[in-house]
Amino acid sequence: MFARRRGSATPPYTQTMKKIRLLLVDDQSLFREALRTLLSLQPDLEIVAEAENGERALALAKVHQPDVILMDLRMPVMGGVEATRRIQQTAPAIRVMVLTTFEEDEEIFEALRAGAVGYLLKACSADKLCESVRAAAKGAAVLEPSVAARLMAEVNRSAAHSGRKATQVLADPLTERELAVLKLLAAGRSNKEIGTGLNITEGTVKNHMTNVLGKLGVLDRTQAALKARELGLI
């Protein structure tokens, strides 16, 4: 667990760098201790609190307002899905990233629908965990490739089963170009790939992406894809 690759290095750090503030949520004290030990070695990461269940996480998130929460799914009192949903309702700027043991866990999809921005296996490397925390703090979605593929397959099945047609149901409808960007986003394309496919600059893609997220009322690409499927837009 959390094996460090040989030759890996921590990112450059200065006294003026703003640290990423973390809340660790897991009912296993030994796992929290391992996380704390690992993440404390990173000069740009700061652990502000720890919780043993979702209910405690809610209270600590309100007090500390962390940038990123590392959230277990199955815990006593309150699980990770419900905790994620409530945290996103009261503090949507907090980025919740799920850490769990099994990639087949169906609760992963529920957590993503509840507002989690990413998912990692607890068996991932230390480097991948730290890199993912930094990416989540910047607003990026972080998904294991296998889960990303299953997620898209799941929402595709849901859309097909519902039989809904692609209709504009937003108060501020997406433009034709924004819909094109959204479809490529849902297909898992990067901003660079979207720009190449639509023959526009990466900067223009980012502008369209900002508009898409705003009109859909979501915070990241994963939520945009889910919301678009639910609304029948793609």
Automatic annotation (TrEMBL):
One Pfam family it belongs to: GerE
SUPFAM superfamilies: C-terminal effector domain of the bipartite response regulators, CheY-like
Domain Response regulatory: 21-137
Organism, scientific name: Lacunisphaera limnophila
Keywords assigned by UniProt, alphabetized: DNA-binding, Phosphoprotein, Transcription, Transcription regulation
Protein name: Transcriptional regulatory protein DegU
GO molecular function annotations of the record: DNA binding
Residues with 4-aspartylphosphate modification: D72
